[in-house]
Write a structure and sequence with these properties.
3-stranded antiparallel beta sheet, globular
Length: 126
């Protein structure tokens, strides 16, 4: 990945997701007064999917893809949007979120890391 690229982590459970995601096809996210990720989806984006341990997940990075189109409003749920996923690929082997020493991979050299945000920037050389 090139340094100028806009790269994100998108948090999504593979099963029983709380949002109206269509795994590998559409990512559903809030854009309201309480929380908005709309400004993260302005450019061409490369992303990696992360499933958190919270709510029964495995704490793994499990796939990647691109987003090349602008977000569009959710017609059913006010204050939410979708982005279309392009070129989605599952990892052959998911990557656990901590290294062998117990360090959180995203914390290493990532000033944008905040586990509370389901959409967050990562360096292109993550």
């Amino acid at each position: 990945m090139d340094e100028k690229k806009h790269c994100l982590v998108l948090t999504q459970h593979r099963e029983k997701d709380l949002y109206n995601d269509f795994h590998g096809k559409y990512y559903h996210f809030p854009a309201n007064k309480r929380k908005s990720f709309l400004n993260q989806f302005n450019d061409f984006i490369e992303f990696v999917y992360y499933e958190p341990i919270k709510d029964g997940g495995k704490g793994e990075f499990y796939g990647y893809g691109r987003i090349t189109k602008k977000p569009f409003k959710d017609k059913r749920e006010d204050g939410f949007y979708f982005v279309e996923i392009d070129e989605f690929r599952e990892f052959t082997k998911p990557v656990f979120y901590k290294d062998e020493d117990g360090n959180i991979l995203e914390e290493i050299n990532n000033k944008h890391y905040n586990p509370q945000n389901s959409v967050r920037k990562i360096p292109s050389k993550f």
